[in-house]
Amino acid sequence: MSQSTASVITLNINGEKHTLPVDHRTTLLDALRERLDLTGTKKGCDQGQCGACTVLLDGRRAVSCLQLAVAAEGREITTIEGVADGEQLHPVQQAFLDLDGYQCGFCTPGQICSAIAMIEEHAAGWPSAVTADVRPEAEAAPLTAEEIRERMSGNLCRCGAYVSIVRAVARAAQADDAQQPPVSDELARLAGSEQKEGVA
Ligand code: FES
Ligand code: FES
């Protein structure tokens, strides 16, 4: 019995439903870029190593090059085109803009999507590989620059704009009321600094 290799699927992207036929091997990244003209999400390595294709799936970050489009049906997909509120930039977008969190901008959509979810993950008490005390009963630690670097380590920047990226994430986290506990003093200083430093 022959089996179909294509299906008609409906993707919920940035609050809009898109119905399209796809080959079952189509990645979510290719569906976004090649089929739906949502080219804000970038293709870097196409093998899950650079983070350029990061989108949010049900609010959690995911590399769309490793996600099949058919498996994303029924999920709430948010791409860089959907993070602003109309003309109002998302606070993370605004912080990247204000603090030069980019150079060429190729990695920036993925960095921003990742940062949005990262800030929420920390606020929800999720530990990272550099969190000192990961016992369930431990008090949540303030967000630090080291935590941001570790939590954003899946997003590479070929331009090496890491110093400014960390500062921009710090600025956005500081402005986020959900951050409990708030950011560390060191990070608050970073967030407030407008001055550009050398490449990390
Ligand atoms: S393009 Fe998906 S991780 Fe690099
Ligand atoms: S700004 Fe150029 S790759 Fe990051």
From TrEMBL:
Span of domain 2Fe-2S ferredoxin-type: 7-83
Region (Disordered): 174-200
Residue ranges of the TM segments: none
Keywords: Iron, Metal-binding, Oxidoreductase
InterPro entries listed in its UniProt record: 2Fe-2S-bd, 2Fe-2S-bd_dom_sf, 2Fe-2S_ferredoxin-like_sf, 2Fe-2S_ferredoxin-type, 2Fe2S_fd_BS, Aldehyde_Oxdr_Iron-Sulfur, Beta-grasp_dom_sf
Compositional bias of kind Low complexity: 174-183
CDD domains (alphabetical): fer2
Name of the protein: 2Fe-2S iron-sulfur cluster-binding protein
